[in-house]
Design a protein that fits this description.
The protein has 202 residues and is an alpha/beta fold. Helices cover 54% and strands 15% of the residues. The radius of gyration is 17 Å and the shape is globular.
């Protein structure tokens, strides 16, 4: 099985590219989906988060991810504590999905991981695709499309590794600055390059 990493920055449109890859028949294992799964009420991570950050992160008995993000993205120490609770369980959930894909005989799997470089996970992949958009584009999208205040949007972007550093490290880049169809065409081209190079090894 060939395993590819997919990453980006908040607001760069990584989910759009992930959807295009699924349209191509690619199995995508999504870290955000994993995070939601391990943070469900009753799961060990849920209990730890509530103990650590208090009942203000709950809404109707479920984790209020927006409120939790407001707390941790303005405080690097709190963000690190949250990551220690969540990341190991996310990795386990994703590994289980990879085993399932392998058992189905899937030749390719893409791991969609927003914090791939921040968590130093890039070395496990044959190649890494970066979904790119400049910081100001990402901030504008967070404000206009996801309802963030500009202050919160800038804090989210600043909490991650600079997108230009990710661009330097990535094997492939998809520039998601010019609309969906341009991004779709780049995704198809990059995936064709990746699959064509499969016989050449890592």
């Amino acid at each position: 099985m060939n395993v590819i990493g997919l990453t980006g920055g908040v607001g760069t449109g990584k989910s759009t590219v992930s959807g295009f890859l699924r349209d191509l028949g690619v199995t995508v294992i999504d870290a955000d989906e994993a995070t939601r799964a391990v943070q469900e009420a009753g799961q060990p991570a849920f209990e730890e988060i509530v103990r650590e950050f208090g009942p203000s992160v709950l809404r109707e008995g479920r984790l209020d991810r927006t409120r939790l993000a407001e707390i941790v993205f303005s405080d690097p120490e709190k963000l690190e504590r949250l990551n220690r609770m969540v990341h190991p369980r996310v990795r386990q959930w994703m590994a289980e999905r990879q085993v399932e894909a392998d058992e189905r005989g899937e030749p390719w799997v893409v791991f969609d991981i927003p914090l791939l470089y921040e968590t130093r996970g890039d070395e496990m992949f044959k190649a890494v695709i970066l979904v790119y958009a400049g910081p100001e584009v990402a901030i504008r999208r967070l404000v206009e499309q996801r309802g963030f205040s500009e202050r919160d949007a800038r804090a989210r972007v600043a909490a991650q590794m600079p997108i230009e550093e990710k661009r330097r490290r990535a094997t492939y880049m998809i520039d998601n600055s010019d609309g969906r169809e341009a991004t779709r065409a780049q995704t198809e081209r990059v995936w064709a390059e990746i699959t064509a190079s499969s016989s050449s090894g890592p």
